[in-house]
Amino acid sequence: MYRSDEERLTDIIMGDAVIQLLKKRGPVSARALMDKLRTMALVEHDPLRQNALRRAMVEVTQSMGIAENSGVPIKDHNNVTHIFRNRDGADKGAKH
């Protein structure tokens, strides 16, 4: 199955986060993974990796069954908070 470079990078980043959790011998859960991804996003400066981290957090959020309207807040390197929501096109009323 063909996967885009962005999807592959998202998978790699998610795998890196899981490996870091395993190395710390802490809990490996969706919540712990989400926390780790947020921590990684706070220090990441590469725009491609930042986008991959956002996609990874959306995937984890979806797997946790969190409400569609809830957002994932991320602070960028300029200390600006961005809130990312699942916008997969399921909402046909969206105008953007």
Protein architecture, described:
- It is a single chain.
- The chain has helices at 5-23, 30-43, 47-64; strands spanning 72-75, 81-84.
- 53% of the residues lie in helices and 8% in strands.
- The chain is globular.
- The longest helix is centred in the first third of the chain and has 19 residues, at 5-23.
- It starts with a helix and ends in a 12-residue tail after the last strand.
- The protein has one domain.
- It is mainly α and 96 residues long.
- α1 (5-23) packs across α2 (30-43), α1 (5-23) crosses α3 (47-64) and α2 (30-43) packs antiparallel against α3 (47-64).
- It has a two-stranded antiparallel ribbon with strand order 1-2.
Brief write-up:
The chain is mainly α and 96 residues long. It has three helices and two strands; from the N terminus they run αααββ.
